[in-house]
Write a structure and sequence with these properties.
alpha+beta; three-stranded antiparallel beta sheet
Length: 111
């Protein structure tokens, strides 16, 4: 999957549990009193600061880590509780997003 808004929305939903309102172009969470706005500019597949939030969210359970390669790309690695390994090589934000989706069990995350 390529970096972009579709991937950003998928990561927000699968990793953080956020919904996306296309009309308002806003991420939100559902609350008993109504929707709680989260962000309108969350772009983890292209923005390293947003991707870092994803990495931090996934750190405790999946031990995701980011390392540079000698080819100008980055590798995001992690381990699932069942000891399966995750390894994604891409630009840093994209690698984090795809590894996070793989960790949460989203089937279409493979490269």
């Amino acid at each position: 999957m390529k970096a972009g808004r579709e991937l950003d929305i998928l990561v927000a939903n699968k990793v953080f549990g956020w919904e996306y309102d296309e009309f308002l172009e806003m991420f939100y969470t559902k609350h008993e009193l109504g929707p709680v706005p989260r962000s309108s500019n969350f772009r983890p597949s292209t923005n390293i600061a947003d991707a870092w939030q994803v990495l931090e969210k996934m750190q405790d359970r999946y031990q995701l880590g980011l390392m540079p390669t000698s080819f100008g790309k980055w590798v995001c690695r992690g381990y699932l509780p069942e000891t399966a390994k995750i390894q994604v090589q891409a630009e840093a934000p994209l690698a984090i997003c795809l590894a996070a989706l793989e960790a949460v069990g989203w089937e279409g995350s493979g490269q």
